[in-house]
Design a protein that fits this description.
Elements lengths: L22 H20 L2 H11 L6 H7 L3 H9 L8 H20 L8 H24 L10
Length: about 150
Amino acid sequence: MVPGSNYEHGFEPRLVAPEPFDTEDAVEALRTYQRIRGWLLAIPDREAGVLQAAYETRPWPKRLFAELGPLTGVVVRLACARDPWPADRAIQELLQAARAGWLDAECAKPIRWSFSPIVKLRREAEERVRRALGAYAAARGPGLCIVRSA
């Protein structure tokens, strides 16, 4: 794992304190951050936004996260597309929390029908994440990997 990476934490609906690291690790983390940022800036904003929604650590409802895993953030953002997107970040967070609550209630329903909003949103999220990861991989180039081997 790269120091400062939150990749593994994105699969758990809890916050974990980062491990302490020395100056050399901090410099390596900064270089890694700059390289990844460059790749993200090289892909279209739409795909970068999908990756941000997918990997941003958030306190999602447990049942919703158990149902969707790492797709949770993307599904919530897609559900928010029903409403105008506010410029204020605090209002965005409130809107996402409200939609996450609605989706969580959908997960609680005993019967899962193919026309359930969760099913449709999950399919769309899977496709968007696939496209975003493809764009990211193309920007990164073949064979490049920044994760240190253990």
